[in-house]
Amino acid sequence: MEKAIVAKNITKKYQLYSNTKERILDLILPKNYGEEFYALADVNFEAEKGDVIGFVGINGSGKSTLSSIIAGILPPSSGSLNVKGETAFIAVSTGLKKNLTGRDNIELKCLMLGFSKEEIKKMEPEIIEFSELGNFIDQPVKSYSSGMKSRLGFAISVTVNPDILIIDEALSVGDKAFAKKSLEKMKEFKKLGKTMIFVSHSIGQMKEFCDKILWLEFGMVKDYGTTEEIIPKYEKFLKWWQKLSNKERAEYRAEVQNRKKEVLTNLSSR
Fold first, then answer.
1. H or E stretch covering 14
2. The domain at 3-84+207-268 falls in which architecture?
3. Fewer CB near the terminus (10 Å): N or C of the chain?
4. Alpha-carbon distance 78 to 63, whole Å?
């Protein structure tokens, strides 16, 4: 099978500063200021063309960071990423200009994707119809609810027909009817052999829609395999996690962070 995504040793580091002074000093002096934070550490996975992969993990596990890197929105700090084809990233308000109207955002985003004004004019009615925004399409996006922003982003992304579709919690806002309609559209894409990344806290949607699951835990790959194999393990983990006290959760986090340090040390010594 043809590989659509190949991620090797993907690591994403941020520098966290306690104040503006630290940030400025870190720019002008050789001594490092601030604290290093690794949102991702040595992430490896492959997606074949036509795969629908769900990203799961509790908050802070790096799902959105990895999605943004695959979409080309964020660069990795190290590692290599090979993505074959055009990607479309759908998350609440991502890529939308708040001061522009919904219609202006359609034109701007499509122009950035390389479509001509003539092509956009033909696509626009379909995008507006799918979004169900009605007269709001000519209102500034800053007046939209989270659900309305998600509708517009989803409508644009599915209409431009990308090779790889990345959906990050975009169906968790808004009404259930639109979420159902969006899932049906995603099923059409699946039949067409499109590769998709799906980030959601809905285990039900994962079971219904995904072929494979990538389980991230505080920035590292915990497990990767078929939905039937990984979801029962993840559900068992969630039940265990929910029973832990705040102190026990902090201890578990510290344990995982220590493992992450070991991984990063081994990675830097290669």
1. strand 3-16
2. 3-Layer(aba) Sandwich (3.40)
3. C
4. 17
The residue to which tokens 């990063």 are assigned: 264
Give SS3 for 87.
strand
Query: What's the token pair of residue 92?
Result: 């609440």
Which residue, chain included where needed, has tokens 């490896």? 44
Q: Are 55 and 214 in contact (CB under 8 A)?
A: yes
Determine the Cα–Cα distance for residues 197 and 67; give it in Å rounded to an integer: 8
**Candidate from 117-126, 137-146, 180-189 with smallest mean pLDDT:** 180-189
Question: Residue 48: beta bridge partners?
Answer: 3
Residue-wise pLDDT tens digits, 37-93 = 899 999 999 999 999 999 999 988 999 899 999 988 899 999 999 999 888 887 755
Neighbours of 243 (CB within 10 A): 8
The CB-based long-range contact list for 259-263 (8 Å cut-off, 24+ gap) reads 259/220, 260/38, 260/41, 260/218, 260/219, 260/220, 263/41, 263/42, 263/220
